[in-house]
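Rotation project, supervised by the postdoc (A.L.). Task for the rotation student: set up a whole-complex structure prediction and record inputs and outputs verbatim in this book. Inputs entered:
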Amino acid sequence: MIIKLDFRTKLFMTIVLSYVMVLGNIQTKYFVQAILISVIPIVLLINLKYKRVAIMGTFTLLFVYIADKFLIRLDYNPVGAILLIIVMVIKKILPAFLMGKYTILTSNVGESIYSLKKMKCPDEIAIPLTVMVRFFYAARVDYSQIKKAMRLRGLTLKKLIKNPILLFEYRFVPLLMCLSKAADDLTVSAMTKGLAVNQKRTSISETYMGFVDFVFFLMMAWIIHLYVRGKYA
Amino acid sequence: MLSLKDLTVSFDGESILKNINMIFKPGEVTVITGHSGTGKSTLLKVINGIIPEYNSAELEGDILFEGESLFDLTILERSKFISTVFQNPKTQFYCINSTDELAFQLENRNIDKNLILDKIRYYSEVLGTKELLDRNIFELSGGEKQLIAVTACGISENEIILLDEPSSSLDQAAIEHLQKAIEELKKRKKIIIIVEHRLFYLKDMLDKLCVIENGTYKEYTKEHFCDAFFEQVSEKHNLRSFNAIFKNKFSSRKYKQVEVLRKNSSDLDCKALSCLNFKKEYERKEIFDFSIAFESGINFIIGQNGVGKSTFINLLMGLTRGKGEVFYNGVKVKKRYKNIFAVMQDVNYQLFTESVWQEISTITKDDELKNEILRTVNLFDKKEMHPNSLSGGEKQRLLLAMSMLSRKPIIIFDEPTSGLCKRQMDILIGFLNKMTEQGKIIIIITHDYEFIDRCNGKVYEFVK
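Outputs recorded:
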């Protein structure tokens, strides 16, 4: 069975997971529930055959939970403490990151504008939001091209690691240039296709809240309940 | 009917187009050509409203469509009857799914969902783009992207269709498909205006040819068109050829078909560069598994999109994982980047620093050499400029200069003529010949048969 979620559900889940997992203390108070919550986006990703992301997510998850258990038992030493902090941060961010990735991978522009409009979200917010999704795609392609080009010029990580400012400049100056051009081109192409603020528009994608969306909303309610209980009870 | 009346376009007081008077009729294909930087794309931008709304410029004269001035309308209002296919297929789409993209314009017009779907079905059938529906646009080839853009123009049912160098990164098969799609739109009485350097695929459907030169233009109409006329015009204005060139023309020179799935190791010895047992798989499908060797001088690699040309050079340059060994003059090459310089298709990615001078200083410290090479590529006056403010042709020349300075023996080009006018192509060929004299091994991936025809060099066709 393929789980198809409405864009609003996905957005809500992304927000809940990032807020609750980053700011809450579910990981320390409810260990099993925390793992269950972290598994939700992975299940969704597997369901739509994004295997690579799902596998990477699973391994990172396993790794940080095991590393956490291991590191916390060690006697205090500075390196261990730093590693522990890194592991804890990843533990907190990972579910939100995977959920966000899922939302970006599975939403299309038309559908998301339409859903956001149904939520009475003003165009001034909805349109830039969807452009951002589109923009991440362009950025990913550009970034991998730049890394390739640098390697060809012999500007490898190994050589530049001693000079991080130069590394930063060589990687990000062309990226910013490409991105600002991409942003210009995208704006122009959207305008020549009649995208405007505050106009009525239709959508060819089916968007309605179904039973599955209801189930996931309930799940989120349970997570919020855990969060509140963990923090204030 | 669309007409330009005494149109003058100037940037900062300097007029780039002067007193242009043109008339475009429904069902007519007008091709606008001329050298790079003469203002061809500017003209399209003035028609669709990007100038002056998005890029500022001073306009005089008028543009009339059905008797009404376009100057009073915004880009948005003009989008109801003007569609544009942009040059860069990478950033002209707003959506990620191709069907969404096709629906996008009609969605913005608040048209009923079922009507939109009907129109998508109808036009994708007529324009032969049915198999491109419901795909991820980022996974389509350049040619397929341009076809989606043309289909979107059809679906919008706009009267005016503008195309800015639609063929610049397309292979032969894709160009034929594009040609058919444009003809189909012509039958539907659209006003079609195409800005283009490559002219051969437009010859048969052309109604009017405009050559822009030094701010003004020459117009040739259908009555004059014949083979002798085309030859004369391309001679006079130094344009690219109107005649299609086919690959059988290369049979007189060294031409070899390379079956990329068959391990062949014939005549690999005594070549300057040998690539042995190159093997690459993608999602459990074999892309290639073969050996190939190149001599010094120019080597062209041609072949259909998707046959693995780019993957092959990426593997050769060590940019992608895969099996294979590279030998240069019999010695195994370990660090590929130490021996290979690449000029990639999108030159924007390859410039990292803040000025032309700094860029070239990443290669050598010798000031005299740097000055000399900048003079040869005609960039000496621009050495303080930011690399990104150069034109496409100039960026390419900067990379050429760097490749010549780098003393690397192997130079790889990916589609170097994409977007170049005839004059820039001739300059490029001059440099290629110079590099050949220096004994470099030049490997060029291209779909541009006219370019191959004008160079000497061996041709390798990759086939599955």
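Student's summary: Residues 172-187 of chain B form the longest helix (16 residues).
Supervisor addendum: Chain B has 14 helices and 20 strands.
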